[in-house]
Amino acid sequence: MRRISIFGATGSIGQNTIDLIARDPEGYDVVALTGAGNVARLAEDAVRLGAEVAVTADADRLDDLRTALAGSGVEAAAGADALAEAADRPADWIMSAIVGSAGLVPGLRALRHGTTLALANKESLVCAGPLLLAEAARHGATILPVDSEHSAVFQALVGEDRAAVEQVIITGSGGGLRDWPLERLSEATPEEAGTHPNWDMGQRITIDSASMFNKAMELIETKEFFGLPAERIDTVIHPQSLVHALVQFADGALMAHLGAPDMRHAIGYALNWPERRHLPVDRLDLARVACLDFHSPEAARYPALDLARWVMRRGGLSGAAFNAAKEAALDLFLDRAIRFTDMAPVVEQVLEAMDRAGCLDAAELSLDMVLQTDRDARARARAIAQT
Ligand code: NDP
Ligand code: MG
């Protein structure tokens, strides 16, 4: 039996992970499940899967969680410290699927125990990639990418000479507003931006797909995880979301990864790695697919991409500032305090101001520096939005 924990169990990635492990009850021993606001689902899954402990990130919900777990034998815990402590519980495989930079600390804690961390939480690589990779190396831990594009690149690189990689191309659907006239984008509501043509995901990443802030994050994630320079990483719009990424090698060969848009593929690949086992995902019928379209993203529609390229060149604490400013801008958009098209300018102004003030310089990252930069960038984004 493999001991596994799921951080962010109540979310879209967490629920897809549970779907896979629940199909093989003899295969897994569930250690910790975590959530935040959705205490009812957390408790239900923890009882159903026989978890050791259920943790809500929201300290005020401990009584609710205790009540929901009463008599089940599952321990209840709440708050940030309890979340980090859950990462200390011995496990062979841990899914990191909390949304936002809140996923960084539990992920780092888990790596200290030499575990295998399936990383969906792209924010932790964007904020603190070098810190995460160094922690994994120090403790002999393994990080497996779960973001579909990065899982695709990882799979295309199996058995290959990484020195022969010329370029990595990650695809993006262009999001729910891809075909809107440019001049109408400023009117988009959170509901309109929160609808995705192909993928069924959490609300925040769906809106980030419409702005392509998600792809911007993934460009940085590619640089951090695969250690490639910015000029070797590109993105292309592929409306069908069937090709997830492509790797071009020195001999001109382009290795593409195709599959149905179902996150259970990338999650299952990480769960079964280094083996491949049957997964309950649709198989592609290429004759029915018939066409695969690709085109370059327009800079005016997706300004987040240029910001990501700046961050990739700038390094230091710019990723932490970029992610936090983006999260704050998204909160402001969800609160209807700024427009859809205001998000990128807010992030750009935060980056410019922090760069001018010397706040992005760091020869070596530390967790304290990253968390401080995160707080600073969020506060600046909120202040800029008020002016
Ligand atoms: P969801 O919003 O669906 O779920 C987020 C999870 O994090 C929930 O369990 C939620 O709890 C929990 N959570 C929210 N806020 C906090 C907090 N402050 N502290 C601790 N836990 C918290 O997100 P997704 O599943 O869509 O995404 C999860 C991660 O995976 C993100 O980093 C995303 O970028 C990445 N990802 C997602 C993909 C997808 O298809 N969904 C694809 C590739 C990457 P609760 O619901 O109980 O409030
Ligand atoms: Mg992705």
Q: Can you give the helix content as a percent range?
A: 40-55%
**Alpha carbon gap, first and last residue:** 56 Å
Q: Please count the beta strands (DSSP E, at least 2 residues each).
A: 11
Q: What small molecules does the structure contain?
A: NADPH dihydro-nicotinamide-adenine-dinucleotide phosphate, magnesium ion
Mean pLDDT score, rounded? 97
* SS content category: alpha/beta
Q: What is the CATH architecture annotation of the largest domain?
A: 3-Layer(aba) Sandwich
Order of helices and strands: EHEHEHEHEHEHEHEHHHEEEHHHHHH
What is the makeup of the main sheet? 7 strands, parallel
Topology-level CATH name of the largest domain: Rossmann fold
What share of residues are in beta strands? 15-25%
- CATH homolog superfamily of the largest domain: NAD(P)-binding Rossmann-like Domain
Poorly predicted runs of 5 or more residues: none
The number of helical runs is 16
**Anisotropy-based shape:** globular
- Cα-based radius of gyration, to the nearest Å: 20 Å
Domains (count):
3
CATH class type of the largest domain: Alpha Beta
Strand order, biggest sheet?
4-3-2-1-5-6-7
